[in-house]
What we know:
By secondary structure, the chain is an alpha+beta fold. Helices cover 14% and strands 23% of the residues. It folds into 2 domains: 32-53 and 129-233, Roll (Outer membrane lipoprotein wza fold like), CATH 3.10.560; 62-126, 2-Layer Sandwich (wza like fold). It is elongated and about 65 Å long.
Amino acid sequence: MLHRRQILWTLGATLLASSTAACATAPGASRAAGLQSEGFADVAFADWSDAEPEYLLFPGDEIEVATPTANELTRTIKVGPDGRIALPLIGQAMAADRTLADLESDLSAAYASQLVRPVVEVTLKTAGPMKVWVAGEVRTPGVYDMNGDIDAYQAVIQAGDVLPGANPGQVALIRRGPGGVRMMRVVDVRPRRGEPVALRRGDILFVPRSSLGELANFFTLIRGALPIGFNYSINGQYQQF
Length: 241
């Protein structure tokens, strides 16, 4: 369970959905096979894992960028809404979706033209707000701040609860897994019926109208609209849904 928190984003559109034949799976299992059987072969997920991936920087994170060989360049700075930071001599650099080690390597290379044998050390000082995306058949879909530990049912309630006609027993939880792959499992958010499922920063909850075949429409609608930090790795290449 992550206690770290995630990026700021707003969702302005109400999602469309279409009905398809219902399909079921055991909690924690990959949904790729089921979706492909419904004719959505382009919707693929890795097998579910509860392993916590290496921390990736997000907008709102406060970091220290230290240069031990040039202390006057050391800065404590927040990652901006666009995922970038601004540093003396080298200007802007992309920090979001980078590990601390990746950013250290990037900045060392950038300073190489300005300093002799530059050494850069990046430390996370304060994690930014944890946010999750609640979409589909809820009253107020969008990205929500998660104050402390929260489960899938609580997130749906925060989004105004499900609409009449929704299928709260078959909600998709989409999460970035180790290596940046996208994973999906089915969760039941009906009161006193489903097992509480703790959320992590960056999780996406999609409440369908009838079945999870509607995920294909969901992906089409959000393609290109995901905020920084919602990128996933597909076939080894990072891209949005």
